[in-house]
Amino acid sequence: MRIISSRTVRGLVSLLVCLFCISSISAQRRDFLTDEEIEIVRDAQDIDARIDVLVKMMDRRFGVLGINVNGWKEGGKSSASWDEPPKGARSELLNDIKKILQKAVDDIDNLAANPNSAPIRDKDDKRAKKDPERFPKAVRDLAAASKRYLDPLKMELDRSTRDEEKGSIIDSIDLCNQIIEAVGRLPG
Questions:
Q1: 183 CB contacts (<8 Å, ≥6 apart)?
Q2: 49 class by beta-carbon count within 10 Å (0-12 exposed, 13-18 middle, 19+ buried)
Q3: Can you list the domains of the chain with their CATH numbers?
Q4: 90 φ, ψ to 5°?
Q5: 101 falls in which pLDDT band (50, 70, 90)?
Q6: pLDDT tens profile 116-144
Q7: 164 touches 90 (CB < 8 A)
C-alpha cells in the first residue's frame, strides 16, 4: 500500500480550492440584461419591435453613465414596465451596450438568414399588412441609433483610461460602423 505524502495532499487541496474559486467566480457573472428587460425582449417578437426595445436598453445604459446620445428617455406611463435602471460599474455598463448592440445585429442576421422564422399571422390580422416593412425598418432604426452612438462612443474612448472599457467601446464603434454600412445595402 502506498502512502500519500503531505506535499501531495496539500497540492490536491490547493487544486480543489482553485477549482472552487474559479467556479464561484464564473457563477457570479453578470447578465447584460435585467430580468425585466429579458421579459420585454421575449415579448417583442416582431423584429422592428425587438430592435426598438434593444435600442431603448442601450439608451438606458448611456443615460445611467451620464452620456447624452439624444435617445429615448424613461418617463411617463411606459417606464413602469422597465423596472429599475440597470446597475453596474462603468466598464460593466459599457460592456452591456456592446452586448446589446451585438444581440441586435445577431437578431437581424438570424432573420435575414431564416426569413421564415418571423411570426406568421393570418391574413385577417391587421399586423400582417406591415410584416414586409418590418425588416428594413428594424435595420434603419438600428442604423439611426448607431449614428447617434458613434460620436459619444468616440469621446468616451478618448476619455477612458482602462483597457477593459476601451475594448468594449472599440467593439461598439466597430459594430456601429458595420450597421451603418449595412443599411446602405438595403433595397429602396
A1: 139, 140, 142, 143
A2: middle
A3: 31-183 (1.20.58)
A4: -50, -45
A5: very high
A6: 888 777 777 777 767 788 899 999 999 99
A7: no
